[in-house]
Amino acid sequence: MMDAKPPVLCIVGPTATGKSDLGILVAKAVHGEVLSADSMQVYRGMDIGTAKLSKAEMEGVPHHLLDLVYPDVPFSVAEWTAEADEVIGRLHREGKLPIVVGGTGLYIRAVTEDLDFAEQPGLLAIREKWQAYALEHGPERLHEELKQRDSVTAQRLHPNDVRRVIRALEVGEATGKPMSSTYDWTLQGGRYHTALFGLTMPREALYERINLRVDKMVESGLYDEVKRLLERGYNEQNTSMQAIGYKEMVRAVHGEMALEQAIEDIKQATRRFAKRQLSWFRRDKRIEWITLDASGNLTNVDKMRILQVAEALSAGIVQTNLE
User: Fold this and answer.
1) Which class for 126: exposed (0-12), middle (13-18), buried (19 or more C-beta within 10 A)?
2) Is 280 found in the same domain as 294?
3) Which domain holds residue 162?
4) Per the annotation, does 18 bind a ligand?
5) Is 15 annotated as a binding residue?
6) Mean pLDDT across the stretch 118-146?
7) Is there a single domain that holds both residue 316 and residue 203?
8) What long-range pairs does 144-150 form, CB within 8 A, spacing at least 24?
9) Cβ-defined contacts of 233-242 (< 8 Å, 24+)
10) Structural domains counted in the chain
């Protein structure tokens, strides 16, 4: 029996598994709408490299939480959560099922759990100290400081991603523990009744889909998209431009790397990213995993299972509104 919390369906998993297509299929079946849970699709003008759907590809299904800010504007998970809550609340009032689709684990976590975004006492002073250090010594030295304190987090952050490097340093200093060891995976449940489906597929097939997707991005004009962003004044100092596909192509545009090498680097980085995504989501035992075949197709049994859950959630919204 469904609890009294308003329902949300989540479709998660690594990149290139067809989450977007499934989200559209479900939305059309149950009169739902899609919320993007992708930390890079919030940026305007970054379309090809983030695999944003075109209007035609959305097939008439409204999509939310896209193009929220310009690429030089910092955007936090707390801000995304506030935007998501507003959209979800409105959809519930309209009798529509919110379908959260994406591979940014912390965004999904923010929907399924009540994460605490409150600042700890003294955090501002620590942040200002490291901001001053970065200005005096530069991003490389700042990153080296993080590497000495938290090598795991340093490994996944680029030295030019100064904002997140400082965040990792301040969390470590405030808590006395490295950021990589402080994440709490205890599942408490949040403000929504959530059902989660995860898409996966054989690794070699997934990697081939990733390679083909990158090739398609390049054919669609990724190089020119990055060039336009650079011409507008955005650069590798912006967190957005550190996204996979953009940081490599920036080097190609600047002539620091051959285009062919940039493409290969994007493919490799995306494959590694998919592996990290899968590791993250595997920790959440609430996710019901659906294994696609080598061509990325769902079985009819799996498709019916997902639609049955979606219909039950949608029926719960209707019942609540009737009351």
Assistant:
1) middle
2) yes
3) 123-181
4) yes
5) yes
6) 82
7) yes
8) 145/169, 146/172, 149/178, 150/178, 150/179, 150/180
9) 233/72, 234/71, 234/72, 236/160, 237/160, 237/162, 238/71, 238/72, 239/74, 239/161, 239/163, 239/164, 240/40, 240/43, 240/46, 240/71, 240/72, 241/71, 242/158, 242/160, 242/161
10) 2
Share of the chain above pLDDT 70, in %: 94
Query: Binding residue per annotation — 20?
Result: yes
Q: Starting from the edge strand earliest in sequence, which strands make up the sheet with 32-36, in order?
A: 63-64, 32-36, 97-101, 7-12, 193-200, 288-291
State which of 181, 202, 227 marks the end of a domain: 181
Q: Rounded mean pLDDT of the chain? A: 91
33 within some domain: yes
CATH code for the domain in which residue 277 is found? 3.40.50.300
- b/e code 225-244 from CB counts within 10 Å (16+ = b): bbbebbeeebebebbbbbbb
Do 221 and 312 touch, CB atoms closer than 8 A? no
Query: How much is the average pLDDT of 284-303?
Result: 95
CATH at residue 149: 1.10.20.140
Establish if 186 belongs to a structural domain. Answer: no
247 in a labelled binding site:
no
Encoding tokens for residue 323? 């009351």
Task: Look at residue 61 and tell me if it is in a domain.
Answer: yes
Residue 42 identity (one-letter amino acid): V
Q: What pLDDT is recorded for position 4? A: 82
- The answer to the question of residue 2 being in a domain is no
Q: What is the mean pLDDT of residues 282-311?
A: 95
Instruction: Please tell me whether 13 is known to bind a ligand.
Output: yes
State whether 100 and 82 are in the same domain: yes
Q: How high is the pLDDT of residue 122?
A: 72
Whether residues 60 and 129 share a domain: the answer is no
Tell whether 176 and 283 lie within a shared domain: no
Question: Is 17 a known ligand-binding residue?
Answer: yes
On whether both 238 and 310 belong to a single domain, the answer is yes
Model-level pTM?
0.85
Polymer length in residues for the chain: 323
